[in-house]
Amino acid sequence: MTRRVRPLALIGLASLLLAGCGIRPTEVPTDFGAAPTRVGCSLSGSDKVEAQAGGEFPVQVYLVCTSQLVTVDRTITLERGQSSDRVVVARELLAQLASAPSAAEKSAGYTTDVRSGLKVSGPRADDPADALRLNAPPDDLSPYALAQVICTFASSEVTAEDDEHVILGGPGTDPPREYTCSEALKARPGLIPAPTKTVN
Questions:
Q1: Between 143-155 and 86-98, two packed helices, what is the crossing angle to 10 degrees?
Q2: 33 vs 29, 30, 37, 38, CA distance in Å?
Q3: 25 falls in which pLDDT band (50, 70, 90)?
């Protein structure tokens, strides 16, 4: 009487034969592309404060997203004639940086390293006319906070002469320095020191 070979035995025999022939099992490729990122980190808008009557004005500030500096659209409120006042605009921009991100910004991954106690004032008598002074030495700020302040001020047509440089000083005898908002600083604010040079 012929015995019926069980299916499991056949499977085992086939595996042995394949192994003897040098054929190894391979994994099924599962390359579906890169994992989707949680945050696009790309917002755009106007950073120009138009000289007009008092009201709301669109601005841009730099927040931190995926360890980079990214612009976010905000709105500041100015009274009549304040839109061309460098110090007033700088204070409003700094207040925006120190404000907690909105619920939508938080869910998108945006954060800020600027603390609410940071203040800004105008130049002293012996400072350059376009200098701004903080109530803390810039070098005492965290790298992210300093980069946020530099690039936010430098990108504003009111608080800086161009879109890359801003002159900042601290309290006391802290000398004002020219800080550059470079592409490298935007890309790696936590790793690259803010480029500076002392100005008279």
A1: 140
A2: 12, 9, 12, 15
A3: very low
